[in-house]
Design a protein that fits this description.
alpha/beta; globular
Length: about 220
């Protein structure tokens, strides 16, 4: 019987919250994180936990809490991310640093802390973006965001090499979703619930480990 414990970061709104609700509907036990630890989801199988990816102490505290629970995760979805420079020609230094602190450094150190809590054959999903694709890059905007997602994709590859045969690992593009990550994204093609449904279908499939998947086109994305 598959392990039905799911951990979703960035679950207070947008794609993360929609994913949490969908997994709950399908009978999973869900842990959701956000910086405050306050998530407006009321369900007996849901637990909200505080996590600030920019603070190493927060990551250490979170890991200790998971260890004390003895929880083994069947699915880890690294959904949390920011994009303060989305749509801009060049980022300010502060927003550049913030983007890499959350989207790269935080993701890496958090994931490394969670590896020991993954069940055998667990699935590890990094929510990336086709804006991080080198092959598909034709724009000149959103420098920090694009670079951070490219770095996250590389980390996915490293994890795939390291844990071959142990976990199913993938990075994915969630589609252009209506979220408040930036002004442009409020005009997105998909509601968070629509993106979550596509992500859920992929996560529950027997996908090829190490793949970069575009849930919008239901096909592999160029690296």
């Amino acid at each position: 019987m598959p392990n039905k414990n799911v951990l979703i970061t960035g679950a207070s709104q947008g794609i993360g919250k929609a994913l949490a609700l969908l997994f709950l509907e399908q009978g999973y036990q869900v842990l959701g994180t956000c910086r405050s630890g306050n998530i407006e989801i009321s369900h007996p199988s849901f637990e909200a936990m505080a996590l600030d990816l920019t603070q190493m102490e927060s990551i250490k505290t979170f890991e200790a809490q998971i260890a004390s629970k003895g929880t083994k995760l069947g699915i880890l979805i690294n959904n949390a991310g920011i994009g303060p420079d989305l749509g801009t020609s060049f980022p300010e230094e502060k927003s550049f640093d913030q983007t890499f602190d959350v989207n790269v450094k935080g993701q890496v150190f958090f994931t490394e802390a969670m590896i020991k809590h993954l069940a055998p054959s667990a699935k590890l999903i990094n929510v990336s973006s086709k804006m991080g694709s080198i092959e598909q890059c034709v724009g000149t905007d959103s420098v920090a965001y694009r670079m951070s997602k490219t770095a996250l994709n590389m980390y996915t590859k490293i994890l795939t090499n390291r844990y071959a045969g142990q976990f199913q690992i993938a990075t994915l593009h969630p589609g252009w979703v209506r979220t408040n990550i930036s002004g442009d994204n409020t005009k997105g093609r998909y509601a968070p619930e629509e993106s979550a449904a596509m992500i859920f279908e992929f996560v529950c499939s027997n996908f090829k480990t190490g793949i970069f998947w575009n849930v919008e086109t239901n096909s592999a994305c160029d690296w």
